[in-house]
Amino acid sequence: MRRRGRLVEGLIAGLGLLLPVSLAAQPPPMSGAGGAGRIREARDLQEAWEVLSGLISGERLRLHLAQARALLEHHGVSLPAAEWERVHQKLRARDYEQNPDRRKTAQDELTAAVDPIKDALFAALPAVGAFDAPNDDGTKLIVLWRPHAGAQQYLVERLDVRPGRQTNWEQIRTAAPIPGSAFELTDDSRIYPSHRYRYRVSAVDAQGQRTLLGETGEVTATAQWFNFDQLGFLIFVLVLCGAVIVYIQAAQRGVRLTIRKIAGLDAVDEAVGRATEMGRPILFVPGIQDMNDIQTVAGLIVLGRVARVAAEHDAQIEVPTSRSLVMTAARETVATSYLNAGRPDAYDEKKIYYVTDEQFGYVAAVTGTMVREKPATCFYMGSFFAESLILAETANLTGSIQIAGTAQPAQLPFFVAACDYTLIGEEFFAASAYLSGEPQQLGSLKGQDVGKLLVMLFVFVGTVLATLVETAEWRHTVVGDALDYMVQRVLNTGGG
Amino acid sequence: MNPALKFLVHLDRRWVFLLMALAVMIPIIWRMEFPEIPTPLVRTVFDRIESLPEGSRILLAFDYDPGSEPELQPMASAWTWHCAKKKHKLYFLALWPVGPQMIQATVDSVLKRDYPQMRYGEDYVNLGYKSGNEGVIKVVVSNLKELYTTDHFGTAINDIPLTRDLVNIRGMDLILNVSAGYPGTKEWIQYASTPYNIPIAGGCTGVQAPLLYPYIPNQMFGLLGAIKGAAEYEKALSDQYPEYARDAAGKRRPEFTKGIERMGPQLIAHCVVLGLIVLGNVILALHRRALRAA
Amino acid sequence: MKRTVPLIITFLAGVVLIYAYFSPAAAGLSDLSLIHFDILAAIAFLLGGGNLLRMHGEKVYKQQAGWGYSLIAIVAFLTTLGFGLCKVGVTGRPGYWTHLTGAGQAVGLVNLDIADERHTLTLTVRRAEPGSTHAVRLGQREIGQIEVDRDGRGDLVVKYDPPKKMAGEFLKSVREGDTLAVGALLQGTLQRYAPITGDYNQNGSAFWFMYEYGFRPAVQTTFAMLAFYVASAAFRAFRARNIESVLLLGTAFVILLGRTFVGAWISQGLVDPSQAPQNTWEQFLSFWYIPNLTGWLMSVFNTAGNRAIMIGIALGIAATSLRVLLGIDRSYLGSEKG
After folding, report:
1. Secondary structure of residue C144 in the 3-state scheme
2. pLDDT in tens, B177-235
3. What is the CATH number of the domain that holds B212?
């Protein structure tokens, strides 16, 4: 009871991290004194250009609108409150528009409502600006500039600032004019982390006359060491992994964990025993993907357990593989299982062989083996695609007992219809822990359940909020705000 | 036990295979076709393309390969024909390496055949394939020219009238994606349509369709699922435009009605499977009764 | 040591990949790890191929049951490998090329690539006199000028591209044996590309022939067999033994009917599919219209089930990966503690 209590406390503390840590991800306060309508301080410029870029792209509009408002007011530019209210109304209207035909109109209205804010921000900024692209590896910079009347083409030049070395302006891009839009260019050609660059943009008119629109200050390409957009996800991962580790330790200390029965796994011993009695082999198919697929690894883990039981029961096990690396790993696994069972003499490496990488060539070979050798038991544990039903039906024809496990949702119906036992999704991943019976492995299953509880909680809360917003029309209340926060920040869906 | 019942209880599955073979062969040989009624999901897509004003920009993303061509080509052709009929501007691209071949095959069999007046670069353009899966989508929603500096044939993007002024795909009026797997409709929805409110309709294989239903109707307004969806769309098209399915002499145009053609064997096969299910349950009931009597 | 080193590698690789996901600065590490895996997998091809040959070879040598099939497998394997490696039946890349040589130390290379209606002639000169300009002649015709930069290097590209209205139509008439000269500096005679420059699966090559007429029909036939297996699985599995199987049976019925014209035909009396329902009663009837019922089953039950399974799978993957990374579960390695 005390251990459980500590566990719950730990989880609450973990969840409690969500709030302050996500607050910590908010942008830092602005520097410099408020100017009279112009943004000049380097740090504020950087932020202003990022906010403007966000308003242009339409990503995370709520956040960028709030930042734009704070920036403008701090620098003495005030827009009527009605303007801001209008934008937020249009934003809500777009987000909640159910009718697909009206959604584009809602988007256009929102864009039109944001335009005055973009214009106000542009007016407070220089004509041309550049900033380091957020959440990148230091190889991208973003350049923005205002449209110039009469321009037929824009030329963008870059200077690589190297102290002590002479460098020249280099033309990196040309851009055609787009009416009514600000320009944003991502420069990722030969940008190096920690290098400093300057940009200048010129407009060329129909007569070929060139006008310099402006030149930016120095901007440094910086690699970000953490992508704050993924913060919510990181917290969830830490909570999940923490729960798994906590339960593993609890199991090691002797806490009794209850795992429900999984019929397919309880039948493994019976299935192997059947093979021994009938004097026929066991066929184990570890899927058709390579070792980089976790389903294949999970399949090989189950193979280890099944091979040990087979060795103990003196049954022959045959493992045709679709990938060479899987063959190598499977041989190691089965050899060790036979060794651990005290039957190294019974191990035959020729029974674990590579067939072909080609999906249907592989299944043709395996079904041929089934028809000729008539295995008593067939295991399908891994990643399968279209060949799943061919395998299952052929084995059914030969009278084998079949136990399948896969995490491919599209193949599960075929296995359920054709096999005697099917491990669905997470049951397949739980198989190795279940079969081993080791406390630390069982502890990981309980930890996994914590993740599921969290998901269920989010689903429940989100459903209630969404239902209230839709049916009680509470979208303009705190309920609507809570739903927005959940969708935009917690689920990190991006967009507005 | 009755010998007939015994035969049925131990029915060799090769009888089932034979029935299935006949169910597929006979409709093909006799060219059996059945009426199709477009379902709401298909009708929605049709109506949307119909209602778009002439000259609308449509992005056609063909993300499939020759393996899924029999199932997906009919819908790709039907959509291309419909969009050309409505004089929309067509932007083709692909996230699969062999996608450009599918695009070119569609252009050759549909546009060059029925719409020879359509000019490449002014009415349609083939942007080709770029590697990067969903990474491509993430770039083209912001700055298409960052990735596509030329079209599939090597012509500079800025030299093509249709793409000269195109900054990104957010200005598209519609995305029509034909998808056989990954990357496909799901990625287009997640990275283009939902964040930037670009309407999208998908066409997919039968196995994929259940995985795409969660996106309907908020994120994807319509779906053509498998050959049935293609057949329904062909029916809707030929109802509205008789010249689609039949030539001037009233003769059927087989290249544009592959979906309807292939539904013949599918219908008979489905009926055979239904019959087998019923038969199986009858056998079960009779067998249980015989065992109880014994 | 034999078990510890792989565990350390697994742990480090896992941590690096997780870190690379959250850190843009380290994103390149993720690509690097994947490339390393591809290299390993490519080398493993040799292992697999060798094992295949050994296994079948032994069967043939000992004349075990089915040795004839093993012989066919070996012959097919070696033939395909030979056809591909030796590019049997491959005609060279379409176009011409030549090395340009002269009395001095300057050298050059010219390539003329022909693709459908687009021809591109690329001429490169090296170690020529810096700042010099030379006329380039193809046969008797001057096709351009080459300017040598201060590094002694000059390039010229001539294109024939009808869509872009690029001239250069004369490129269509170039033949093997034509002479190309760069002023008085260099000259060479155009020759066809050697067959080895072609693609191994070029249309008409032996490899392509085996693929198109041997391999693809076999694959498509095996795939088509699924239709028969679906029928036999349905016949065997969809029997009303209990409540769950009755539900499964009923759903299968509705979906099978709804995905063909039959479903619409037998329920057509319930609703006019061309019109939306006008009142509650019509809405109720419209629900039972089989295509609509199919859509409802797919979008409600199927969707809910799929979502739940996918969430469970994702969590299962996370827990299994954690066990593997931390070395708690090592049986895939053949660990002694497995």
Report:
1. strand
2. 999 988 999 999 988 998 788 999 999 998 888 888 888 888 899 999 999 999 999 99
3. 3.40.50
Residues of chain A with CATH 2.60.40.10: 130-220
Report the Cα B141 to chain-centroid distance in Å.
24
For residue B236, which amino acid is it? Answer: A
Distance between CA B163 and CA B127 in Å, rounded? 9
Question: pLDDT per residue over B80-134, tens digit each?
Answer: 999 999 999 999 999 998 899 899 999 999 999 999 999 999 999 999 998 888 8
Please report the ipTM that was assigned to this predicted complex: 0.82
Q: Cβ contact (<8 Å) for A137 and C27?
A: yes
Asked if C302 has any chain B CB less than 8 Å from its own CB, the reply is: yes
Q: B16: domain range?
A: 3-30+263-293
The domain made up of A263-437 is a member of CATH 3.40.50: yes
- Check CB contact under 8 Å for C24 and A417: no
* B213 shares a domain with B272: no
Mode of pairing for the β-strands spanning A196-205 and C186-189:
unpaired
Peptide bond before residue B217 is cis, with ω within 30 degrees of 0: yes
Contact between chains at A336 and C312 (C-beta distance less than 8 A): no
pTM of the model: 0.81
Of the given ranges (A15-24, A97-106, A361-370, B181-190), which has the lowest mean pLDDT? A15-24
Q: How many domains does chain B have?
A: 2
- Look up residue B229 and give its amino acid: G
Q: How far is CA B204 from CA B71, B136, B185, B218, in A?
A: 8, 20, 8, 18
In a domain, B35, yes or no: no
- What residues in B contact C264, CB-CB < 8 Å? 37
Q: Which CATH superfamily is domain C95-193 in?
A: Superoxide dismutase, copper/zinc binding domain (2.60.40.200)
Q: Which residue from A136, A389, A430 is facing C24, i.e. has the nearest CB?
A: A136
**CA B207 from centroid of its chain's CA atoms:** 13
Residue B98 resides in a domain? yes
H helices of A80-139, in order, are 81-95, 100-124
Query: In terms of Cα–Cα distance, which of A432, A266, A379 is closest to C337?
Result: A432
- On whether the A130-220 domain is CATH 3.90.180.10, my answer is no
Could you state, in order of their start, the residue ranges of all structural domains in chain C? 4-86, 95-193, 238-325
Q: What is the DSSP string of B13-58?
A: HHHHHHHHHHHHHHHHHTT--------HHHHHHHHHHHHSPTT-EE
Q: Answer yes or no: is B112 within a domain.
A: yes
